[in-house]
Amino acid sequence: MSLAIRFNGVVKAFGPVTVLNGVSFALSPGRVVGLLGENGAGKSTLMKILAGYEQPTGGVVEVDGRPRQFAGSREAEEAGIVLIHQEFNLAEDLTIAQNIFLGHERKTRLGLLDDATMRAGAAQVLAQVGLKRGPDTLVRELIVAEKQLVEIAKALARHARLLIMDEPTATLTPGETEALFALMTQLRSEGVTIIYISHKLDEVERTTDEVVVMRDGRFVAHKPTAQLTRHDMAKLMVGREIADLYPAKDSPPGSEAVPLLEVEGLTVPGWAEDISFEVRPGEILGFAGLVGAGRTELFEGLLGLRPHRVRRLALQGRTTQVRSPRDAADQGITYLSEDRKGKGLHVDLGMRQNLTLMALQRYARPWLAPAAERAALRDAVQRFGIRTGNTEIRAASLSGGNQQKLALAKVLHPEPKVVVLDEPTRGVDVGAKSDIYLLVQQLAREGRGVLVVSSELVELIGLCHRVVVMRAGRIQAVLDASQLTEENLIAHATGTRH
Ligand SMILES: Nc1ncnc2c1ncn2[C@@H]1O[C@H](COP(=O)(O)OP(=O)(O)OP(=O)(O)O)[C@@H](O)[C@H]1O
Ligand SMILES: [Mg+2]
């Protein structure tokens, strides 16, 4: 039942840029293998080759001792190899069931689509992953975490013998993550080999039997997980010692400063009810809560992306209204969306166009100045450590973590007074994470207001001066630095403490 895989000198080049430089290692069948490496190390690319989405430029992949080259993902799936994509690969306008069976439609004996069978099949895998949505729901109606569960359900319906999960838990709640781990254990006991890509080293430590580390398109190490600490893993990934992840906190700004942003009585129907808060110059204000608590929707409302009403909104002491993200950017507030592929980046546009989109007037004098844009991109690549061999590529061709860095560069490019960062470190490697934390601190030191929405409690604790905890659309508590513990945050987020 299990598949044995061996990579033999696998090379991959995109035009002049080589991203895999002859990768060789073997995977033992029936194990859970963590695949680690910095953003852009080549993890997703290697897995896309294994799963038939990309062709190698050189070298071979052996499956059960035989060289195999899959012409497409269908061929790989027939061999039992299924990839769950890091950037979702769902058709938004189709239903969950249609997505699950896309390209594998079940037919009746008359050759018609067998909707009943597909719906039932979908319902079964949805139950397995714990998604409480009907098979007929349109994918566009799902939130990000639900889309992730559909991706996993889709892979289960393909009866994988080798399952590749590319950062599956980046968008999941702790509960959903636990359910996924239980599912992985069950699949392994049924003989499924699992390759698990993640930047969450605590999860890698818990769930994997062995880890493979890549760096700069090369194989670096293959070890039993039990022989490594998280610290060892981080060191192997980045090739150097990592100091503390979080910078020492600056003291919070005094209460005498005029708030940069005041929100009074903001309601986003169905999501958030009568929310009030303020952020001062130099303050890092966190928003904690379970997925579904309404944090993302709250800010989407604030930025004019959702219907909302507000009693009073003031920017730098002036009462105002915000109609759209562009309008907001003009008034000095920008928003990094948690959904970087959907709302954050225009993945079909180039890096340069993405970067300057929110600050176009700066480059139009009156016509666009591509040279200035190019210079701005060079700066951003440098400042945010965006790793790519070629800056003329579409945003879609950047690695996941590097897309995140570009999205961050984009929202900071207009030099906002207030910036809302929704899951700012999703999918970024440990080294880049600590860079982003330093950057957030720097923004605060420059006198800006930084709002951080995060599902990683340690991140909020390590970074914020104050944290607003939301639950079911309402503010449950506002904790200052001295009250910030994981236990406290969880208790308020789940409503076990008032
Ligand atoms: N279609 C493409 N065209 C050009 N370059 C590409 C393309 N696809 C990937 N790359 C480049 O290949 C390199 C490796 O990317 P890959 O997505 O494999 O990294 P990764 O290890 O998965 O990183 P992350 O942790 O950020 O997801 C990156 O520099 C990326 O920009
Ligand atoms: Mg990747």
UniProtKB/TrEMBL annotation:
<dbReference type="InterPro" id="IPR017871">
    <property type="entry name" value="ABC_transporter-like_CS"/>
</dbReference>
<protein>
    <submittedName>
        <fullName>Sugar ABC transporter ATP-binding protein</fullName>
    </submittedName>
</protein>
<feature type="domain" description="ABC transporter">
    <location>
        <begin position="255"/>
        <end position="497"/>
    </location>
</feature>
<keyword id="KW-0813">Transport</keyword>
<keyword id="KW-0997">Cell inner membrane</keyword>
<dbReference type="GO" id="GO:0005886">
    <property type="term" value="C:plasma membrane"/>
</dbReference>
<keyword id="KW-0762">Sugar transport</keyword>
<dbReference type="InterPro" id="IPR003439">
    <property type="entry name" value="ABC_transporter-like_ATP-bd"/>
</dbReference>
<dbReference type="Pfam" id="PF00005">
    <property type="entry name" value="ABC_tran"/>
</dbReference>
<keyword id="KW-0067">ATP-binding</keyword>
<keyword id="KW-1003">Cell membrane</keyword>
<dbReference type="GO" id="GO:0016887">
    <property type="term" value="F:ATP hydrolysis activity"/>
</dbReference>
<keyword id="KW-1278">Translocase</keyword>
<keyword id="KW-0547">Nucleotide-binding</keyword>
<keyword id="KW-0472">Membrane</keyword>
<dbReference type="InterPro" id="IPR003593">
    <property type="entry name" value="AAA+_ATPase"/>
</dbReference>
<feature type="domain" description="ABC transporter">
    <location>
        <begin position="5"/>
        <end position="241"/>
    </location>
</feature>
<keyword id="KW-0677">Repeat</keyword>
<dbReference type="InterPro" id="IPR027417">
    <property type="entry name" value="P-loop_NTPase"/>
</dbReference>
<dbReference type="InterPro" id="IPR050107">
    <property type="entry name" value="ABC_carbohydrate_import_ATPase"/>
</dbReference>
<dbReference type="GO" id="GO:0005524">
    <property type="term" value="F:ATP binding"/>
</dbReference>
